[in-house]
Write a structure and sequence with these properties.
Blueprint lengths: L1 E4 L11 H9 L7 H22 L2 E7 L2 E8 L6 H17 L5 E6 L19 H5 L23 H10 L6 E8 L8 H8 L2 E6 L8 E7 L3 E3 L4 E9 L3 E9 L2 E10 L2 E9 L6 E10 L9 E9 L3 E6 L6 H9 L3 E5 L8 H4 L4 E5 L8 H12 L4 E5 L14 H5 L2 E2 L11 E8 L7 H16 L5 E7 L3 E9 L3 H9 L10 H12 L5 E8 L9 H10 L2 E8 L4 H10 L1 E7 L5 H13 L3 E2 L6 E2 L20 E2 L2 E2 L4 E5 L5 E8 L2 E6 L17 H12 L8 E8 L2 E8 L11 E7 L5 E5 L1 E4 L2 E7 L4 E11 L2 E12 L12 H11 L19 E6 L1 H20 L5 H5 L1
Parallel strand pairs: 3-4, 3-5, 5-6, 8-14, 15-16, 15-17, 17-18, 18-32, 20-21, 20-23, 23-24, 24-25
Antiparallel strand pairs: 1-2, 2-41, 7-9, 9-12, 10-11, 10-13, 13-14, 19-29, 21-22, 26-28, 27-30, 30-31, 31-32, 33-34, 34-38, 35-36, 35-39, 37-38, 39-40
Length: 867
């Protein structure tokens, strides 16, 4: 037993004893000296008692009384039978506990402390209830837990919250009821840090019939066309048969029925990779007797080296024949696709060393596809080239898109003075169906269209529902701020009527003095009233006004197409509202008729480069046209037109190189170049400049999948076979949602570098490894990893070794009887605090009464004798 103060700084108040001493010394009370001394000492004792009470004097007495917290594993590897056994154990412990308090904490990926025990009247048990020894009942929520929460087992995460439930006046004791198969965390390390006794109760493994696809074992790297072995590993807890199906990408390559025995079953298949840089293989298993179907598939990636391949996306694939033939002469394999074939996943895009867009408008691509190109270029080191055409650069609507961000040129430009001015009227449907994202994207699109106009142009904005509203009357586009502020005021409400806005748009443009006049009409619905809208549009055409339409979602695209045909414009059917800004940008630049210069010119070299050192560009035939752009400040300006406009420009963007060639490579503007002897070499050199560089020899990358990620090991040597040491390296990880992380490589042995890469989401992960000595890049390696179903769904026996080590290392009991949990252990004790404040106040009050008597009554009779 011992005494402690909770607020020791209040003890300074004992200095008040000096005033008591001064009062005793100079007191005028005529009592005996003994009575005066007794009174002084009594006051000194009262002062001390009051100060000790305020300072929180507490009696600390040892206790061996335990409080137990049961940690109940409720992950998916615990079936109903195991849960039933755990509940029976807790019930038996509750019966054996007498008045001892305890909590029950369910856990899986994290603990749920809110269900950690209830009082007898149904209230949530608190520490106060525990200190009053209220016997809790089992938590009612253990059978109603979210499925996502059960996808992992993290015993370590449950320890600290469980300890926080135990008041300090009890000896803490944790009891883990689990199968011991933790998928996250390190419970042994966490238990040692906690310093608390932990007993473990093993729960049985599931007994229901279960067949699972454990993994696909395949080499990390092969050569294209070279056969290799692929092992499909199936786990089973019963003897049965299973149908094994193997896929290479999306194509089925094998299907066999195999006998399955209890334990691990390995089936080998012979495979090859052709014309792919990286190939995904996946396998499924189907059995008659199977409980969990979520773990019946697995996938893996294999990297294949070979000839460099590029992807050419061409609006008219037939016109790409000349470029494809020229590149194949230079040993560059080229795959041609229409815009609809643009890759929709990073894995598919990563198969190519470079991507070329030829005359492909932004309206044919989704924002996700453009984001993929940006990630492919910046993080995976791929190459990107945009070729010119009537649907490229600004004409393609790439203003303020991820593609424009990666290009070395800008898509907005200054008009030449001789270019005719443009008056444009933006007509925007603001009916109720346009609410939310659609109206906001329409407003952003209108603002971007205003930004693309020159100060010599004019713009008006009309919004409509059942009526028409002139948001911004026809005015100079130089008033950009005023017009954009007016556009921001548009709100969605009301019906849809086409007559009023068509009339207002006609009136606004009829008064404009520009040579070119154009209407962009956007709506997402059908007009409430039918009428002869086409005649109104034809009246605009008579006044030299063109008319284009944009149908969003479930619009009357048939009517809008007729209106666009009558107005000598274009119609866009827009299923994805995200494409609205690109459509407005494309229409605005197209209507201005100033982005294309179609006249013969000979390229002029601005910046000499080794890439074109062996090509006599200045003696090349003339090109017949180009798209007007502006170079960005940090780009390399290689070739220009005779007027100094950009023709060939490139720059580095992240790990990759992006280039822009504002003319084309086919028989429209480049018709004369098709017969030029330097045509093949020119394009081969330009594409090789942007192409992802081949991976260096002397490097071996090994990936080992673990429960919570991948362990990467990289062995690196130079051309002479000497290990490369003391290099600095990192891994750029692209997750399935395109977010990224960078992880440093750690040297662990001569020429060996390693890293732990966490992976907590399903899908494909792309790894870009780079290693450098100073400013010299000595290695670039690209790899991929597929993450399938959670580790929690794997078929595994009870991890008794872990549970035994956990109990032994903390002084707990492995597989205890319920009655053993609450037996007092003399070696374990806690300090129970008893506040002495009320007792001190009571004693001080009693002594105060006696002190008053001493000051009022002359016990020595001195005063009486004097009288």
């Amino acid at each position: 037993m011992s005494l402690e103060f909770t607020h020791p700084y209040y003890l300074i108040a004992l200095l008040l004893a000096v005033f008591l001493l001064w009062g005793f010394r100079y007191s005028l009370i005529d009592f005996t000296k003994a009575q005066r001394w007794i009174s002084f000492l009594l006051r000194l004792v009262i002062l001390s008692l009051l100060v000790f009470a305020i300072a929180g004097l507490t009696l600390m007495s040892p206790t061996h009384e335990k409080m137990v917290v049961f940690l109940l594993d409720q992950s998916r590897s615990i079936d109903e039978a195991a849960t039933e056994k755990a509940l029976e154990f807790i019930n038996a412990a509750q019966t054996a506990s007498g008045n001892t308090s305890f909590f029950v904490v369910p856990f899986a990926s994290s603990p749920i402390v809110e269900t950690a025990g209830k009082t007898a009247d149904g209230r949530q048990q608190t520490a106060a209830d525990a200190s009053d020894k209220a016997t809790p009942s089992l938590p009612s929520a253990v059978c109603n837990l979210p499925s996502e929460w059960r996808e992992a087992t993290n015993i370590a995460a449950a320890l600290e919250p469980a300890l926080a439930l135990i008041p300090p006046r009890y000896v803490p004791h944790l009891v883990v009821l689990s199968d011991g198969n933790e998928t996250n965390g390190d419970v042994l390390s966490a238990a040692v840090r906690g310093g608390v006794a932990i007993s473990t109760v093993p729960l049985p493994a599931p007994t229901a019939p279960e067949v699972q696809m454990a993994e696909i074992r395949l080499p990390a790297q092969v050569r294209q066309g070279e056969p290799f072995n692929l092992d499909v590993v199936v786990q089973s807890n019963i003897d049965t048969e299973g149908l094994i199906t193997l896929y290479s990408g999306a194509f089925k390559v094998a299907e066999e029925t195999k006998p399955l025995k209890i334990g691990e079953n390995v089936f080998r298949f012979r495979q090859t990779v052709e014309d792919r840089r990286q190939q995904e293989f996946s396998a499924t298993v189907a059995a008659v007797e199977d409980t969990i179907l979520d773990n019946n598939a697995a996938a893996g990636l294999v990297f294949a080296g070979g000839k460099p391949r590029i992807l050419l996306v061409e609006s008219d694939p037939k016109t790409a024949r000349d470029l494809v033939s020229a590149l194949r002469e230079q040993d560059i394999e080229t795959e041609v696709r229409p815009p609809e074939g643009m890759p929709r996943t990073l894995d598919e895009l990563d198969q190519f060393e470079a991507v070329v867009l030829s005359n492909v408008p932004a309206t044919m691509l989704t924002m996700h596809q453009m984001d993929l190109v940006r990630t492919y270029l910046s993080e995976l080191g791929g190459g990107f080239i945009m070729l010119g055409g009537e649907q490229s650069f600004g004409l393609g609507g790439y203003y303020k898109t991820p593609i424009e961000e990666v290009l070395p040129v800008r898509n907005d430009f200054e008009k030449e003075k001789e270019t005719p001015s443009l008056a444009i009227c933006l007509v925007i449907d603001r009916s109720g169906s346009m609410g939310g994202q659609k109206i906001e994207l329409a407003k952003d699109a209108a603002k971007s269209a205003v930004e693309l106009l020159s100060p010599r142009d004019f713009v008006a904005v009309v919004a409509f529902d059942h009526a028409s509203y002139v948001v911004a009357a026809m005015q100079s586009a130089a008033s950009t701020g005023v017009i954009k502020s007016a556009i921001s005021t548009i709100e969605a409400a009301g019906g849809t009527n086409f007559f009023p806005p068509l009339n207002d748009a006609h009136e606004q443009l009829r008064r404009a003095s520009a040579k070119l006049k154009h209407v962009i009409f956007l709506t997402d619905g059908y007009p409430n009233e039918q009428g002869d809208f086409e005649s109104m549009v034809r009246q605009m055409v008579n006044d030299q006004i063109t008319f284009s339409t944009v149908g969003v979602g479930d619009a009357d695209n048939e009517l809008l197409q007729r209106l666009a045909d009558a107005g000598k414009g274009r119609h866009y059917s827009c299923d994805d509202p995200q494409a609205i800004p690109q459509i407005f940008a494309k229409e605005t630049i197209t209507a201005s008729k100033s982005a294309i210069h179609e006249m013969p010119f000979v390229p002029v070299i601005i910046t000499p480069t080794e890439v074109l050192a062996e090509i006599d560009v200045e003696s090349a035939p003339p090109l017949l046209g180009f798209v007007v752009t502006r170079p960005k400040p940090t780009c390399q300006f290689i070739l220009a037109t005779e007027n100094g406009e950009p023709l060939l420009v490139w720059w580095r963007y992240g790990l990759g190189v992006s280039a822009a060639f504002t003319s084309d490579a086919k028989n429209r503007w480049g018709a004369e170049w098709l017969t030029w002897t330097g045509y093949s070499k020119f394009w081969a050199q330009v594409i090789r400049q942007t192409m992802r560089k081949p991976e260096q020899r002397g490097a071996m990358v090994e990936l080992t999948q673990r429960a919570d990620g991948v362990h990467l090991t990289m062995d690196v040597a130079d051309d002479a076979g000497r290990y490369i040491n003391e290099a600095a390296g990192c891994i750029t990880v692209i997750r399935p949602d395109l977010s990224k992380a960078e992880i440093n490589l750690k040297p662990t042995a001569p020429g060996r570098y390693e890293a732990e890469i966490p992976m907590d989401k399903r899908g494909g992960y792309h790894l870009q490894a780079s290693l450098g000595l100073g400013e010299v890049n000595v290695l670039n390696q690209s790899r991929g990893v597929m993450v399938g179903y959670p580790e929690e769904l794997r078929l595994r026996p009870v991890n008794e070794e872990l549970l035994q080590r956990l109990a032994e290392s903390t002084g707990g009991i492995y597989n205890p009887a319920p009655s053993e949990l609450f037996a007092e252990d003399a070696s374990q004790s806690a300090s129970r605090a008893t506040p002495l404040r009320p007792y001190l106040f009571a004693v001080a009050a009693g002594l105060f009464v006696f002190d008053v008597l001493l000051r009022r009554v002359d016990f020595g009779g001195r005063r009486a004798r004097r009288l």
